[in-house]
Amino acid sequence: MDDIFTQCREGNAVAVRLWLDNTENDLNQGDDHGFSPLHWACREGRSSVVDMLIMRGARINVMNRGDDTPLHLAASHGHREIVGKLIQCKADTNAANEHGNTPLHYACFWGQDQVAEDLVTNGAQVSICNKYGETPLDKAKPHLREFLREKAEKLGQNLAKIPFKDTFWKGTTRTRPRNGTLNKHAGIDYKQLSLLAKINENQSGELWQGRWQGNEIVVKVLKVRDWTTRKSRDFNEEYPKLRIFSHPNVLPMLGACQSPPSRHPIIITHWMPYGSLYNVLHEGTNFVVDQTQAVKFALDIACGMAFLHTLEPMIPRHYLNSKSVMIDEDMTARISMADVKFSFQCPGRMYSPAWVAPEALQKKPEEINRRSADMWSFAILLWELVTREVPFADLSNMEIGMKIALEGLRPTIPPGISPHICKLMKICMNEDPAKRPKFDMIVPILEKMQDNCNHVDEVQNKQHDSLLPSFRAPRLISAGSSVQITL
Asked: Which residues form the Protein kinase domain (predicted)?
């Protein structure tokens, strides 16, 4: 079978679907020139493949080696339907490549009149200069130039030239494709591994920053007493199931190394420059998590959990909390598979009980509904996102576990929280596990909240001093033993 890039280029939807169904395949990987599968599908106008990739979580603003996004390629080749899909999925209409050209530059140069009109209608600036001082209007034929100038004026654009500014891509909504070779290496050659600096140490092991195969990674050295043949066999059976590359909100375990040749069993995962969500919220990073970003993080986590809940069997011993959610370079929240416990790691012990559902602290694992318990953990994460506080920070882990399980300890929702987030939090934290929603039910709710937050941000940018009307969020209705969600 040809590689995924060929299949996307040729529009082989059946082969692409089969490839995507393998969780060890990363749809956001790049080829030798940094083209992702979405780049190729957009360039060749393969609409059905584009739909499939976007639905599975392809990054919309990913850049190839020349800094072209999929929108650049769709616009230059006149694929109007695909341009519309990308814009609907919040593609950056003013993204500049290494030469400073935007998608509108390409549409104008290649005479894609309708695509150029669509881009301007959706926010593309007609007066952005590339490296050579040329605007999209300079690239257009006379009839298109006059039409776009007139349209831009009607939309309120300032036609004064915007000088080229060399922007560094890291830390924006755009990102690079990942190294597609990493998901080919389940086993690690310990001699190729470099441990550079210790990040942290806890009950389960040590965390190191390192390098492997030319990539920045995080190395987790597991503390395991009495490494036996049985534990070695369990380790080999369990870690491949955590190599989940197929969803953008899940951070896979890249591989593992046995003991020996290493002194202890080790696992590795991608290096995330911002660390965990816990680090971002509570340990003083250089950016502020406002309500818009908090809702975006919540949506990312919900999407990742919705995907994990479709797996059969589910990943065992996975406990959702802010320390196990990592933040990628483009501010994407990703659920780390490196934080899943192995069967031989301290069975029966809970290291972060503040996020654990009451029934999970009271009963045996086989007696609880894991999906409902995860929803409780998500509710605590929501509380953490909107309050910026550590849940039950004044208590020890043992006190937290005992009080949640036996004394009804619950987080207090402070005043001033958005009533819509507050209502969602309460319904996800229902004392009856059967009445909590599923993640695929709350994803549309959070998408609606995100759209409303983005709209409010746009209004605030235009009218700093105006009073903003409160937005209407989806309605949540608890009914009987199920949850009904209406948009």
From this structure: 193-446
Low-confidence ranges of the chain (pLDDT < 50): 1, 168-172, 464-487
Show the beta-strand stretches assigned E in 248-332: 250-251, 253-257, 266-270, 325-327
Return the pLDDT at 472: 41
Kindly write down the DSSP assignment for every residue of 177-230, as one continuous string.
Answer: PEETTGGG--B--GGG-EEEEEEEEETTEEEEEEEETTEEEEEEEE--SS--HH
| Residue 477 φ/ψ, nearest 5 degrees | -125, 120
What is the pLDDT at residue 182?
A: 65
State the Cα–Cα distance between residues 180 and 26, nearest whole angstrom. 7
Burial (CB < 10 A; 0-12, 13-18, 19+), residue 65, is middle
Q: What is the pLDDT of residue 115?
A: 97
Going edge to edge, which strands form the sheet with 266-270?
194-202, 205-212, 215-222, 266-270, 253-257
Query: Domain 283-454 carries which CATH code?
Result: 1.10.510.10
Domain boundaries, the chain: 4-155, 190-270, 283-454
* 252 in Cβ contact with 268 (< 8 Å): no
Q: What gap in Å lies between CA 62 and CA 34, rounded to an integer? A: 9
The pLDDT value given to residue 424: 94
Question: Measuring CA to CA, which residue among 121, 151, 42 is closest to residue 86?
Answer: 42
Label residue 157 exposed, middle or buried (CB < 10 Å: 0-12, 13-18, 19+). middle
Residue position matching structure tokens 């340990």: 283
The reported pTM is 0.76
pLDDT at site 422: 92
Cα–Cα distance measured from residue 114 to residue 343, given in angstroms and rounded to the nearest whole number: 58
- Select from 216, 214, 195, 215 the least CA-distant residue to 206: 195
